[in-house]
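Worked example

This section walks through a single chain of length 135. The input is the sequence exactly as stored; nothing has been trimmed or padded.
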Amino acid sequence: MGAGVGAGFGNQPPAINIWGVAFKSLSSPTREPHVGSIPKPDVNQLTEQELQASLDQALANAVFKALQDPQWDWRTVDGLAQEVGLPEDVVLQIIESAPDRVIRSRVPDARGRALYTTRSHYRERRGFWESFRST
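Given that input, the structure is written out below as tokens.
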């Protein structure tokens, strides 16, 4: 099941060129699916690389969404892993692959664990001068 998305202008309806897909966990079937997109309406028409890229993007989106949870200023890798249902090493790999989107606190939590947030979440949660001073 999925939905198509397209963009266009004029009198012609847009071509559908992106399809939604939900990736469900086989080991935790009650967990919410990770939502992504694919370039074709039928997953059987996709190459393994296209499907893997879609899954990777869906997992990254889940981590970034959890990093921006308004309930938290900063997040630990193990807290993120637990929330999104991924191994800690996968969460850390996603975080480390996006230095333009994610920042690490200079101060660890009380247990010595590294803390992370997105740059946009940090700016939203902190005043301009405080964010300027501390990054």
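What to look for: The longest helix spans residues 48-67.
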